[in-house]
Amino acid sequence: MSTKDYLEKDYYKTLGVTKGATGDEIKKSYRKLARKYHPDANEGDPRAEARFKEISEAYNVLSDDKRRKEYDEARSLFGSGVRMPGSGSAGGNYNFDLGDLFGNAAGSAGGRLGDLLGGVFGNRSGGTAGTTTRPRRGADVETEAALSFSDAVDGTTVSLRLTGEGPCKVCKGTGAKAGTVPRVCPTCEGTGQGSRNLGSFAFSEPCKTCRGRGLVVDDPCQECSGSGRAMSTRTIQARIPAGVADGQRIKIPGKGAPGERGGPPGDLYVRVHVQPHPHGTFGRSGSNLTITVPVTFAEAALGAEIKVPSHGGMPVSLRIAPGTPNGQVQRVRGKGVRRKDGTYGDLLVTISVQVPRDLNENARKALEAFREATAGTDPRAEVLKNANG
After folding, report:
1. Where are the beta strands (DSSP E) in the chain?
2. What pTM value is reported for the model?
3. Domain 3-96: which topology?
4. What mean pLDDT do residues 377-383 have?
């Protein structure tokens, strides 16, 4: 029976039971129908004989829990009552294979679906799998890199030493000893796939003879023991973009593990660890740089114009308004970290009013005079009032 016929037949309808019927219900319905359409009770009636065969076929599948589960899963992939190609037509009595339906568009979504479904239902004619061993993409690789604060802000190129599995350099990935070549696997005929029969289905799995390679090595390479793969170390130059943040994962396409059988390499992911500014001068807040700048009491009270350092450039001027309180944050536009769109964040300046510890005689007299001039002002009056309700 072809895959088409198998999927089109509704065994539950044939036995007159629902899909959720129990084993006893299936058996009861089968016995009732079998007595009605048995050839001994309908001698010379070909229609009754054909009906009896349908009933027996349905019962053989639904009475076996394993085969029933496989049948349900197969039909669920396409939906109940689906009509497969060729059904109801003059040429519909052919041995349908899912690979014929989905495997014609090589490299397309249909081709990939054909590989999947072909592996589920197998080749019912008993031959080898209908697909050839395809190129395999290399694995993605992840590594780490430590950057200084300045390199993270400005961007840099780092050297990364990677150790991983790749094609053996001695045999060039063939797995065969120098002067010899592998031969096509006689079991899978080079497809790298075998088939395991599970009754109504045949599941695709890697060929046990060649372990999925499609090739057999008679005289293996001593370096890689015939696998064609070996551990190797390589050094690459990776560009880290400006503005990268601590813990960020940078993708570098095509720098991962090499592919197999001509497949493309995987990607490299670099996890970045950014060190603090060496003197603690600058910090980060997203795309903004932060800095704390000390000012004198007189500058904060009377106002002033001060110089503030910028990262990697000349100091910038910042205007302090009269009466600026301690801890106030002021913004200098465009002096922060570069963003992905090419724009820059800001420099956030926190004002830190400094209280002098050592006063000369003139400074002391000036502050005494200031205290007398402001004696009527109590800065804690509001706090005391609120605390007492």
Report:
1. 141-147, 156-167, 183-184, 193-197, 202-206, 215-216, 229-240, 249-252, 268-274, 282-285, 288-296, 304-308, 316-320, 329-332, 347-354
2. 0.54
3. Helix Hairpins (1.10.287)
4. 83
